[in-house]
Q: What sequence folds into this?
């Protein structure tokens, strides 16, 4: 199972596999016709309230992950299509945040990797990922 991350502003590549936008809002400055996607999964993104609270503040990362994990666990229909797609090939989670480490797609990637063993994870997935450089998460 391979789940990759890519900013919406980066060019798509053949190695991306199936691409899913996992944001509530469409990326600024990107035309819908210019972003190749399998689907836009708004419900797999954090709630508007959580997104606004987090405001991409790295100091809130751990609490964001805890809250986002709870949202995901309560709505498996939002993320199970991603997990199913990843079981059949490479999936790329497309996001728009500038911070490549502290964003909902990174948290969702870890959540899905944990969930691939069965049920939704019970603990927040946003722990430091030692030994996993950018080359394994971004293309």
A:
């Amino acid at each position: 199972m391979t789940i990759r991350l890519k900013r919406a502003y980066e060019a798509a590549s053949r190695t991306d596999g199936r691409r899913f936008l996992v944001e509530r809002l469409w990326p600024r400055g990107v035309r819908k016709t210019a972003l190749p996607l399998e689907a836009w999964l708004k419900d797999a993104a954090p709630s508007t309230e959580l997104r606004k609270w987090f405001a991409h503040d790295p100091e809130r990362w751990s609490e964001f992950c805890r809250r986002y994990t709870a949202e995901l666990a309560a709505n498996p229909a939002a993320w199970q299509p991603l997990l199913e797609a990843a079981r059949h090939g490479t999936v790329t989670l497309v996001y728009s945040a500038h911070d490549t480490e502290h964003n909902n797609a990174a948290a969702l990637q870890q959540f899905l990797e944990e969930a691939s063993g069965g049920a939704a994870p019970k603990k927040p997935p946003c722990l430091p990922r030692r030994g996993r450089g950018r080359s394994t998460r971004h293309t």
